[in-house]
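Researcher: I'm preparing a figure for a lab meeting and need a structural model of a single chain. I don't have an experimental structure, so a prediction will have to do for now. The sequence is pasted below. Please return the structure as tokens so I can convert it later.
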Amino acid sequence: MSNWLVYIKKYKKEAALAPLFKLLEAVFELFVPLVMGRIIDEGIGGEDLGLILRMGLVLLLLAAVGLTVSLTAQYFAAKAAVGTASALRKAVFDRIMELDYTGVDRVGTSTLIARMTSDINQVQSGINMTLRLFLRSPIIVLGAMIMAFTIDVRSGLIFAVAIPALALVVYGIMLLTMSGQRKVQGHLDKVLGSTREYLAGARVIRAFHREEQELQKFSGENSLLTESQTRVARVGAVTNPVTYLIVNGAIIYLIYTGALRVNAGDLTQGQVVALLNYMNQILVELVKLANLIVTISKALACGKRVGDVLDLPVEDERKDEAGENIAALQPGVRGSATADSGDTSAAVGVPYLQFDHVSLTYEGAGAETLKDISFMANRGDTVGIIGGTGSGKTSLINLIPGFYHATEGSVLLEGRNVAEIPEEELRSRIGLVPQKAVLFGGTIRSNMKWSNPNATEEQIWRAIRRAQAEAVVLDKPGGLDTRVSPSGKNFSGGQKQRLTVARALVRDPEILILDDSSSALDYLTESRMRAAIAELKDTTKIIVSQRASAIMHADVIVVLDEGVVVGLGTHEQLLETCDVYREIYESQFEKAQSAFS
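Model: Understood. Here is the structure written out token by token.
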């Protein structure tokens, strides 16, 4: 819990001033019953109109001062709460950005969204209410009891019995609701996950006419959320009746004994009214405190969940200090630098990219996804990766930029394990086009500059032409400044694929990874793009595809089947030696040709 509370330190002044001003407000409020008692005993009882007017002005002054300090306290409390929530939200977002794929998989996207939004909002509300009421309410309660003792000791004993009884009720409710709130937020995560899944796959659900089944699934999860919220609400609903029962019982007893003692001359009417006012103040404050406890319970439960995100281990913690980078980068290891310097001793026998007996098991998975993968490529080579659905193609390429790390063996870039290369350095050398083409809201130009913020107009257009996307841009009235809607919904699948390839090429990467990034293109456009990319002599190309035509010209082809390399070599070699590759090739070429003959 403490790891999220540290973000309030920046607002220590506001966090201290808010309860301080609330304390002042409470002190002024405690004087009101005494003034009222004096008006009744001396003003009305003594028929002193002047005293009544003077005490009336005192009441107005207390109200004005109380309002001023109350508004000031609320300003500081709101500033501290909103500022802390903003800093916490940024910290959570930064942590999510630092997580590798394993970390995101462990928590889940919908859960991360819930913790960044509703959970932090609950924390913000909890901080705000705590600063405003957590000190004020106890001060009013204790102050009222002390003031009651100053008026009459015997009557003060009633307060001394009622207040501990109320404290026990409030504390018990807090304990019961905290565990319940954690369960509520857990069920909320599942509801959000289902909602997100439905919205993302709405077209598929309608295409298969699965609306009724999805509605039943959502209704079931929503019912669990409703039940957990109802259980917590039932516990919280007990607070006010029990509080009112105890306080009103004390008030009845106070009125009864007060009336007897007024008749006996031990108390004045003004003193009894003051005692009743103090008891009513306690009632109001304890009701507020009970509601505050519910809010705090929610905030603590949500804060624990936010803290869990901040505590997630960043498996890819790398230091990018320049000195360490220089020390790690041995002279002559970088291929192009070696050629320029003439010192080739360090590069002799060191392949540019190498998979050395690599295996991968996803966290929580029962079996290996990749098993004992070994191959290598030199700078400028084209590596084709092919295999059936679920054979591990995407898992394999995700190891190169370090999205996942090998559980056995190592992925080496110029002799260095990618797990030891600083993340910024590693990712800056790689251009990746993922399987799902995604454009971001903004313009075509802003999307192109994602990989290289300093890209010139010439670099952008060169990349666009190489990705066969020139016609896509020129056909738009705004050209590079054409607006792109979120996720690129105003572009077709093929257009998005070409633009995402161009975005990766703008970086002029050392390694270009294309993960089935031409699946929506026609054969002619794909062929032209492949030929243009092949002209990048200093770039190592990693091409994942379901089409044999996309990788048949590669320098080396890796054939995967259920996470195992079953074929490794050129197109001609694999046709002779690899049954899996030959089957894929024939299914796409020879059998297709015979069908037309």
